Amino acid sequence: KFDYKIFVQQMFDFGKTIIYQTKKIFKKISTILQIFFLKIKNQDKKKLIKYVSFFCGAIAVILISWSIKNNQNQKINTNIKNKVTEINIEINKAKELVSEQPLLAREKTQNSLKNLEALKNEKNTKESLKTINDEITKIKSIIEEISGNNSLDKLTVAYNLEDFLTTKIEYKNDSLFLLENNGKEILKISNQNREKIALPENEIIRDFTVSENKLFVLSKGIQMLQLNETNSNFVKIKDEGESDKNGELLSSFGPYLYLLNKNKRNIYRYYYDKDKLSEPIGWLVDKQGISFENINNLMVDGDLWLGIKNGTIMKFSKGSPSSFQIQGINSLPNSPIVICNSETSNSLAILEKQNRRLLIITKDGQLINEIKSNELSGVSSIAFNNDGKRIYAASGSIIYEIEVLK
């Protein structure tokens, strides 16, 4: 049971102790002050004035220095904040361009980022540096947003081919050409018409390419089918030889065919004329740095492009390497890629199925769009449509249709 009397007595005793201790402290302070003033009184007045003047002067210098430094810092902070405000105005203008001119919007935003990073080289304070770093973080996320990090739950299905499983797709002359995974047939889709194309005696098709209304097929040798003639049949335009015996990838540009032979460590070029192919020419002039066993994809559009299993894209002009680098993206491809080109829009598409994304870039490496979807993990081949505004993506029996820009 709580005893109020004892509690009151304890509080009273505690109060007395506090008062006693306080008196002792004040008494000590009083004694110290008396000693201090006594010493001052006994000092030479001239020396005392000198010491006091020196002390006051030192305090004044410190205060003035602090005031000047503080004023300078305020000016620096204000200057940086004004420049950041100007940069933010440019960023907002760039964001207004996203829907109509995403490439220009991204370029303007990247210029703003460079201007922000340049501010770090100016005279700064801790506060102004923090302001700059915070804005750099914001603008990087804006660039990623402008670049089109679209997390798509589902891609649009253009065709369901049911039991026809596709490994390669091309789009030429308003038609889709699809190679079946067993290599026995090519399915041609024009509008709603479907036609299956097979080689005589059901020979296995290793690869194919379409150019100038002709279907070229790599099998035992190379065969050609005229697509603009009714009831036409395959014509063998090349018997199997050393250049194509172990060939794996076939591409075309105009009347030229390009064939990758990893065993021969070369890419051979043929010229087509009047149902005949020229003798093969080892097209590569400089093979340095090419890991042939890791080539995953071959495409020709005047220049020759190789997709490598580590995510690298190699560009060649007239048989020699040409500089190429993707710009405007934080995370570069680092796994096997498949590439395709648009003949009308100066665009390349890069499929990186392991990272479930599709990159749309210009042919000089500038990022246009980045499309992400879980369904891209099953896609094996991609192709632009005629105007370069859509991409067809083959995933087994499903053909997706993807808009390049939304």
Instruction: Please count the helical segments.
Output: 4
Residue share in helix: 25-40%
Order of the strands making up the biggest sheet: 1-23-22-21-20
Order of helices and strands: HHHHEEEEEEEEEEEEEEEEEEEEEEEEEE
The amount of beta strand, in percent, is 25-35%
In short:
The chain is α+β, with helices and mostly antiparallel strands. The protein is built from 4 helices and 26 strands. The chain has a 5-stranded mixed β-sheet with strand order 1-23-22-21-20.
SSE map:
Layout: H1 4-42, H2 45-95, H3 102-119, H4 126-146, E1 150-152, E2 156-160, E3 166-172, E4 175-180, E5 186-190, E6 193-197, E7 207-211, E8 214-219, E9 221-226, E10 235-238, E11 249-253, E12 256-261, E13 266-273, E14 276-277, E15 281-282, E16 295-300, E17 304-308, E18 313-317, E19 320-322, E20 338-341, E21 347-352, E22 357-362, E23 367-373, E24 381-384, E25 390-395, E26 398-403
Parallel strand pairs: 1-23
Antiparallel strand pairs: 2-26, 3-4, 4-5, 5-6, 7-8, 8-9, 9-10, 11-12, 12-13, 13-14, 13-15, 16-17, 17-18, 18-19, 20-21, 21-22, 22-23, 24-25, 25-26
Helix pairs in contact: 2-3, 2-4, 3-4
Molecular structure report:
The protein has 406 residues and is an alpha+beta fold. It has four helices and 26 strands. A five-stranded mixed beta sheet has the order 1-23-22-21-20. Helix 2 packs antiparallel against helix 3 (102-119) and helix 2 (45-95) packs parallel to helix 4 (126-146). The relative contact order is 0.09. The mean pLDDT is 86.
Features:
406 residues, alpha+beta, five-stranded mixed sheet, five-stranded antiparallel sheet, 32% helix, 33% strand
